[in-house]
């Protein structure tokens, strides 16, 4: 019976070792399952009722919908910006002012010439000449930086100031776009 006791102890020891190994393996699997569930919650959210494929399909639909909305919004903004840029081409963004005494008097430089131009150099020069008992106003059209009529020296100076001024480049380029009329803008 001594052999049977030995066999019994051997089988019991092997069984206990296998049970301990099974418990350790169960703990390892439990930890891995907990990590996987945490990662799944990060992807699927708290409900976690969908499987990963269904969740990915829902996300894909959502992204496609949002992308279409953003593209639509970007197209509307682009269209409006084209109109705004076109309108800016007609705004008097350049100016030059020269004050002077027209008749050589000491009247405090009451006469002046004012040049107002858009980015293309189109606009006018307005001259107001003041004398003690009268005032005269002259306006001369400017096309592409060139006057239609001969200008007085003070008007030439005001025009030169205007052509050098402005927040837009001297060639009329706005953000790399040449000063051409935009579609839909008068």
Describe the structure.
With 186 residues, the protein is of the alpha+beta class. 49% of the residues lie in helices and 19% in strands. The protein is built from three helices and five strands, in the order H-H-E-E-E-E-E-H. The chain has helices at 2-44, 52-88, 153-164; strands at residues 94-100, 111-117, 123-131, 134-143, 146-147. Strands 1-2-3-4-5 form a five-stranded antiparallel sheet, with helices on one face.
**Describe the biggest sheet?**
5 strands, antiparallel
Strand percent estimate: 15-25%
The count of helical stretches stands at 3
Indicate the radius of gyration in whole angstroms. Answer: 42 Å
Order of adjacent strands in the largest pleated sheet? 1-2-3-4-5
- Percent helix range: 40-55%
Order of helices and strands: HHEEEEEH
Shape: rod-shaped
| Strand element count | 5
Low-confidence stretches: 181-186
Alpha-beta classification: alpha+beta
Distance between the termini: 114 Å
Mean pLDDT: 82
Using brief descriptors, characterize the structure shown.
186 residues, alpha+beta, 3 helices, 5 strands, 19% strand
